[in-house]
């Protein structure tokens, strides 16, 4: 369901679509509940009216009727010893002997419902002196009216639910559309602001690097060289971190799977390229790439997937000792699935944070000043945008494993 002509990126679009669908379902469910309540009330009212009508018919027949007279749907029997008076045509099984015996023994008049040869009857039996009178009422027409009422309620309910679903879908689209527009405006603002910040930050980073290089080549003679070198190095590092944040914001603002950018490529080959590009940052860390199978092909945008792999490697490097070990595995995982796994022997994380680490700038639920940035959140968006899943497993001090599953090309 397209909520707007200019749709937001796929993950947010799916959330908005689900929200609109949930709203439509709630409206339809509310209408169905209201209709069911009204239908039940109508059914009970009609059923009570029919029971009252049957009781009145039986009472009138017992009080004023004559057994030899034929009345539609009503039969009157009069038993005096062995003599039985009744209309010319009577239903099979009557008079109802058990009720006659009870009335003859002095039981009060009671209306009972019996079924004989597949037909339902209401029976009332009374005793007057030595005579027992029994009235029988055929409820077939009443049951037919109830059946028609139920069918009508079901038909109206189905049509009403369909109409309520359509109306709910339209209302859902109208309700969610402003939120989608707000997301678009927010994303454009982030993109514009990040773009404007990138140039001065790049200049700041470059000038800080040049100043640090010049200072190392021309140390001062007053003995403050070490302190100044430390401060300049910190400035260069901070400028680099700001650049990374801006790049992440730009990627987040432009996150989408553009069909024009999609292509088929080997995930193992791309992972090897990312490792080679990250080699200068690894230091003495050991990074091993294990591939199982050949041509582990997926379809998607190569640049975001490269960024996702680089983010997972960067996360492993950041939480691994300088002499630690990082392993990347790319393999076939079931039919139509390619799996990328990044494992490290670093600091790990609290298992309670396995979902929170993918939230933007979230705080850890464990004690301590732990917080998560934007990188893993963007990695999950990239994976979701390509129709895949990502999960993390780890323990404090025992390393972490990130597993990405992406659809393979046919």
UniProtKB/TrEMBL annotation:
Compartment(s) of residence: Cell membrane
Pfam families: HATPase_c (PF02518), HisKA (PF00512)
Gene Ontology terms, MF aspect: kinase activity
Chain segments annotated as transmembrane: 21-46, 149-171
Catalytic reactions of this protein: ATP + protein L-histidine = ADP + protein N-phospho-L-histidine
Record-linked CDD domains: HATPase, HisKA
Keyword presence, Nucleotide-binding: yes
Domain of life: Bacteria
Primary localisation category: membrane
Domain Histidine kinase per the UniProt entry, residue ranges: 192-410
PANTHER family in the cross-refs: SENSOR HISTIDINE KINASE GLRK, TWO-COMPONENT HISTIDINE KINASE
Name recorded for this polypeptide: Sensor-like histidine kinase SenX3
Native organism: Catenulispora pinistramenti
